[in-house]
Amino acid sequence: MSSSVKDMLAAANSSVPGISPQDAKVLIESGKALVVDVRDGLELQASGKVQGAKHVARGMIEFKADPASPYYDNAFDREKTVIVYCASGGRSALAGKTLQDMGYKDVRNLGGFKGWVDSGGAVEKA
Fold this sequence. Notes:
Blueprint: H1 5-15, H2 21-30, E1 33-37, H3 41-47, E2 49-50, E3 54-55, H4 61-65, E4 81-86, H5 90-101, E5 107-112, H6 113-118, E6 123-124
Parallel strand pairs: 1-3, 1-4, 4-5
Antiparallel strand pairs: 2-6
């Protein structure tokens, strides 16, 4: 059975719950969340990123999140909430679904970076 991007996004969005910038701020401040920016490097350079976020381009998420991978990043912890975001929410939904498929229990989609900025969320240069 073939699937379109639209189908994949619908499945990801139905599986990965959204999180508001306000709720994300609370989780981030508690220290119980890993924030992951899945945008490309040029996007980060142009606009910055959520303060303290880990940058993992969408194409590397599986490698950075798998402890058996030589590219594993130990910031990934299956016991923490993982908050993913991108420019508009599509890539982060797909990345979030991938993380769920890899055994991450609590994954949330912050959606687009602009929503974070508009809410007054802290931003840092990349």
